[in-house]
Write a structure and sequence with these properties.
Bound molecules: S-adenosylmethionine
Shape: globular
CATH class of the largest domain: Alpha Beta
Oligomer: single chain
Number of domains: 2
Strand content: 25-35%
Number of strands: 17
Largest sheet: 9 strands, mixed
Strand order of the largest sheet: 5-6-7-4-3-8-9-11-10
CATH architecture of the largest domain: 3-Layer(aba) Sandwich
Length: 376
């Protein structure tokens, strides 16, 4: 394998030379630096002690967690032997020290922090380390569902589970049957598909967690660059699980773009998308801490600060209006998003931009008022 060395955050990383990222024997996507940046920020706020990067590839994520956050013990695991060997190389490169071989499949580096490189199926490692990690990160190819059960047993009962899903075509309804199979949920097509997809993903974790009497609170969740990301704080107890389950429900959208949603175990009317999470997509207190942390942070990706700010400032109500889709559906002219937001605010409503689309708004104004703004 031929390598090139890249810098990301405080980490130096050897990555395989390849024409296209998916051809490389070990995966590294520079675009995901934004995902890793936001995760570093989250870890700086949460200060977890024991962290697992369960699907580590080059090790970039776990190494950044070790170098840029207060985490004391970080495990970097991959099932692929080439990835494991590269993780070892990258750990040596960044720590300037040799590791101690525990077995053919496990090497520890005990410098200021304890770092462990591990070669195994993530599900087997997570089953071995029962209720061990304070922060557990799942960053798979495609869907995280095959890892959810063991992850929810390996993370502590008040720990945090971070999940990435890159199977956007599935969660956004391009492959409806795959969404039914993997998430047991009906997706929706059209302008709400990304927000609904994110909510289907969170709703799935809530259902998996409930059987272990675990509740789920969303610290932060977003859609970006064709992937979903959610940081989910667990809470322990049957009541907590019931409370989280009660936030699941269904979404309906008519031809004009009017959407309605309703919490409930089963849908009340036909044509529903879901079940999906209808609760908040961020925790307000956590957002404030994140905002403070952002001030002293040097991101690796040039859009991280702007994007994180959009998330922090976004009005947290279920669903949004895409002004272009709304205009098209109702035979109206497109108006500037900033003007619509200003006018809604003048009328006493809350309204902000949303990270889901540059042409969309989040508002607590009723559908007719938003249409009125387009007509005006
Ligand atoms: C998307 S890549 C991870 C990228 C990495 N987290 C980052 O931020 O650059 C997914 C990785 O999961 C590994 N993988 C796939 N199935 C696995 C399994 N069952 N157990 C452990 N690793 C697995 C693959 O070898 C691949 O390296």
């Amino acid at each position: 394998m031929e390598f090139i060395q890249v810098r990301e955050g405080l980490a130096k990383i050897l990555v395989p030379k390849a024409e296209r990222i998916y051809d490389a024997p070990v995966f590294y996507n520079p675009l995901m630096a934004l995902n890793r940046d936001t995760s570093v920020l989250v870890l700086r706020v949460l200060k977890p002690e024991k962290v697992l990067d369960a699907l580590s590839a080059t090790g970039v994520r776990g190494i950044r967690y070790a170098l840029e956050t207060p985490a004391e013990e970080v495990w970097l695991n991959d099932i692929n032997e080439e990835a494991f060997n590269l993780i070892l190389k990258n750990l040596q490169l960044n720590l300037g020290a040799e590791g101690k071989k525990i077995s053919e499949r496990r090497v520890t580096f005990q410098e200021e922090k304890r770092l462990v490189a591990n070669l195994d199926d993530a599900n087997r490692l997570m089953a071995e380390k029962f209720r061990y990690f304070d922060f557990l990160d799942l960053d798979p190819f495609g869907s995280p569902v095959e890892f959810l059960d063991t992850a929810l047993r390996s993370v502590k009962r008040r720990g945090v589970l971070a999940v990435t899903a890159t199977d956007t075509g599935v969660l956004c309804g391009a492959y409806k049957h795959a969404c039914l199979r993997k998430y047991l949920a009906e997706p929706i097509r059209g302008e709400l598909c990304h927000e609904a997809g994110l909510r289907i993903l969170i709703g799935t974790v809530v259902r998996y967690a409930a059987k272990y009497d675990l509740g789920v609170e969303v610290l932060l969740a977003y859609y970006r660059d064709h992937y979903f990301r959610a940081f989910l704080k667990l809470s322990s107890g049957a009541r907590k699980a019931d409370k989280s389950l009660a936030r699941l429900g269904y979404l309906w959208q008519d031809g004009n773009g009017r959407s309605t949603y309703e919490e409930g175990f089963l849908p009340e009317k036909p044509g529903a998308a879901g079940p999906m999470w209808l609760g908040p997509l961020k925790d307000e207190g956590f957002s404030k801490e994140l905002d403070k942390e952002l001030k002293g942070f040097e991101p690796a990706h040039k859009k991280t600060a702007e994007f994180t700010r959009t998330l922090i400032e976004e009005l947290d109500v279920p669903f949004h209006y895409d002004t272009h889709a709304l205009a098209r559906r109702n035979g109206l002219e497109v108006r500037k998003v900033s003007v619509i937001i200003e006018r809604l605010r003048e009328r006493g409503y809350s309204a902000t931009r949303t990270h889901f689309s540059p042409t969309a708004i989040k508002t607590d104004a009723p559908f007719e008022e938003v249409l009125e703004m387009l007509r005006a």
